């Protein structure tokens, strides 16, 4: 089953934990707020994350102090 991820930017505190844990999935915008970058997803939550990155995905979510990282089995279809 595919997994999708999205960062709730309104609650992200730019701590850097997700980018350090899952640099292939998350990076930071110009304001230092995390966003999904995997395959140019642009934080829309539409790009399936491959199984070989699931551990990084789960570690990033578990390490987020504000629970801003969302993971689901269906696309989020956000506007970015």
TrEMBL record:
Cofactors, names only: [4Fe-4S] cluster
Name this polypeptide is given: Ferredoxin
InterPro entries: 3Fe4S_ferredoxin (IPR001080), 4Fe4S_Fe-S-bd (IPR017896), ET_Ferredoxin (IPR052395)
Superkingdom field: Bacteria
One Pfam assignment: Fer4_13
Organism: Paenibacillus glacialis
Function: Ferredoxins are iron-sulfur proteins that transfer electrons in a wide variety of metabolic reactions.
PROSITE patterns: 4FE4S_FER_2
GO molecular function, one term: electron transfer activity
């Amino acid at each position: 089953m595919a997994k999708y991820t999205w960062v709730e930017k309104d609650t992200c505190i730019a701590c850097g934990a997700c980018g350090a844990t899952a640099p292939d999935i998350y990076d930071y915008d110009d304001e230092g707020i995390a966003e999904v970058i995997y395959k140019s997803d642009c934080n829309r939550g539409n790009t399936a994350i491959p199984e070989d990155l699931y551990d990084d995905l789960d570690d990033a979510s578990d390490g987020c102090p504000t629970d801003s990282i969302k993971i689901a089995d269906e696309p989020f279809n956000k506007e970015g």
